[in-house]
Specification:
Protein name: Succinate dehydrogenase hydrophobic membrane anchor subunit
Shape: elongated
Largest sheet: none
Region (Disordered): 1-21
Keywords: Heme, Iron, Membrane, Metal-binding, Transmembrane, Transmembrane helix
Subcellular location: Membrane
Radius of gyration: 24 Å
Number of helices: 4
Transmembrane segments: 28-55, 75-95, 115-134
CATH class of the domain at 30-135: Mainly Alpha
Distance between the termini: 82 Å
CATH superfamily of the domain at 30-135: Fumarate reductase/succinate dehydrogenase, transmembrane subunit
Length: 152
């Protein structure tokens, strides 16, 4: 039979973190960033949903042509870029906090955070490239182009 330790019994003191593991104000800045970016993300996301779903013809109107027309306007490129970057930084910071809270071994924490930062970097770089290099009318055979592209 296994004995369960008394939850009210005093615990042995924890070792103080070394100077290398002390985070200083980084956690405070992360906490403040999460609150501020959450508010900005709400505005960006609901603006995105309003334009894409309610202002137009609803979800049935969202297709390649809709996105191409939207990204032809620099305002929507910047809007979507801000939404991508803030969402990725916000989410990465949240997962980083979870890893710090639950990964007990330093090696595990290092591997998980390295994978997290790599996923962040790949997603942000590819997303940014797609937003700014998107060309709905490339040089191709006219029968392969969308209907809104004029023949060259």
């Amino acid at each position: 039979m296994t004995a369960i330790a008394d939850p009210k019994a005093p615990r042995p003191p924890r070792a103080r973190p070394s100077r290398l593991t002390t985070r200083g104000n980084t956690e405070l800045y992360g906490w403040v960033f999460m609150r501020a970016s959450g508010v900005v993300l709400l505005v960006l996301i609901f603006g995105h949903l309003f334009v894409n779903l309610w202002a137009g013809d609803g979800v049935k109107a969202i297709d390649f042509g809709f996105v191409a027309g939207k990204w032809a306007d620099p305002i929507w490129q910047v809007w979507d870029l801000l939404m991508l970057w803030l969402a990725m930084i916000h989410g990465t910071n949240g997962v980083r906090t979870i890893i710090n809270d639950y990964a007990e071994r330093d090696g595990t924490r290092l591997v998980l955070k390295s994978l997290l930062y790599l996923a962040f970097l790949v997603t942000v770089v590819l997303g940014t490239l797609v937003i700014f290099t998107f060309n709905p009318c490339p040089d191709a055979a006219p029968d392969l182009l969308p209907s809104f592209c004029t023949a060259r």
